[in-house]
Amino acid sequence: MTILVTGGAGFIGSNFIRYVLANSASHIVNLDSLTYAGNLENLSDVEQNPRYTFVHGSIQNKEFIEHICLVHGVTGIINFAAESHVDRSILSAGAFIDTNVQGTLVLLEVAKKLHEKGQLTRYVQVSTDEVYGSLGAEGAFTEETPLAPNSPYSASKASADMLVRAFVHTHDLPALTTRCSNNYGPYQFPEKLIPLMIANAIDDKPLPVYGDGMNVRDWIYVEDHCAAVWAVFERGRDGEIYNAGGASEKPNIEVVKTLLQTLNKPESLIKYVTDRPGHDRRYAIDFTKISDELGWKPRYSFAEGLQKTVEWYVANKEWLEHVRSGAYLAYYEQQYGRSK
Ligand code: NAD
Ligand code: TYD
Questions:
Q1: Is the minimum distance from the CB of 215 to ligand 2 under 6 angstroms?
Q2: How does residue 340 score in pLDDT terms, banded at 50, 70 and 90?
Q3: Quick one: pLDDT at residue 146?
Q4: Is the CB of 192 under 6 A from ligand 2?
Q5: What is the domain count for the chain?
Q6: Considering every ligand atom, which ligand is closest to the CA of 90?
Q7: Is 221 an annotated catalytic residue?
Q8: Which residues are within 8 A (CB) of 154 and not within 5 positions of it... i.e. 6 or more apart?
């Protein structure tokens, strides 16, 4: 089996490629346009693997993707490629529509054509719990929770989910959707809460906590998310949606204080800052469906996952330095030409 993984140079995609190469005999073609969030250093340990190929390109380029699928004999597609940061979508939403909506449409059209030719067995759309909007103090998102996205990011992901649904219903595309909660772990770009706080704490810089710090996220270690996407790709039912979560709901301030303790840094580094506009208060995931149907559940506790994550960032200061300086971007521009 040859799987086209899009956005594989990003945080979750790179962890997923490593996971699949280690846990299956599949070949992986990684298509990534290498935006600021795409970093081939995330995959330096697998680049020589004969079952792995990197292709530089955008999911918005239909002819190119069709060509890649033909040349490599792609039989499955898993779409991780996205603009993924809420704060960036608040500043400027255009790229989110281009990649997350238009790009997904292109991939679905390619998938449809391949399926009609009998070449494609599966398409998986990697979505997010943020499409469900915000919860009050009680309850958790199920797959039946109505979509109510609040940020331009989550609106773009919800739009993509609607397109997947339409292709399932109209064209009988064997497509499935996963909706996972907040990931953390190695190779996460230090603009998201956990890696940003670790990076700042290491450098004794202030840790910016939005609002009152009491917004709640359900944290999942990235390897557990990778296992969920793989279970859905291999064994999920066509057309279905599967939630995945970490069973680790925490207010942001608790996460930040735990990180400071782990790194042996003082709480005086915490700096409360102006809240994010439209900031969702609480996310929580009911993952009964994937657990009952596919036998998946998260393996890492928050304490274990966070410890591993902190250790990884401390041991990989060079990676962090490269990412923060943007040095890898200049290199890609020289190597591949400007990405989007
Ligand atoms: P990321 O920002 O780290 O990586 C995104 C990757 O997509 C990068 O490598 C980037 O270069 C690539 N990309 C962007 N635009 C592209 C385009 N037009 N064509 C090809 N490649 C392109 O994101 P992530 O955190 O790894 O998230 C991966 C996916 O998982 C996203 O779809 C996101 O919505 C979803 N998700 C993320 C989380 C989370 O907590 N990070 C949780 C649930 C779901
Ligand atoms: P983030 O990692 O951006 O993920 P998302 O917004 O997709 O959930 O943010 C996680 C939580 O941390 C969210 O409630 C916003 C908050 N946050 C801060 O308090 N300070 C920060 O600097 C960042 C980036 C996030």
A1: yes
A2: very low
A3: 98
A4: yes
A5: 1
A6: 2
A7: no
A8: 86, 128, 130, 131, 133
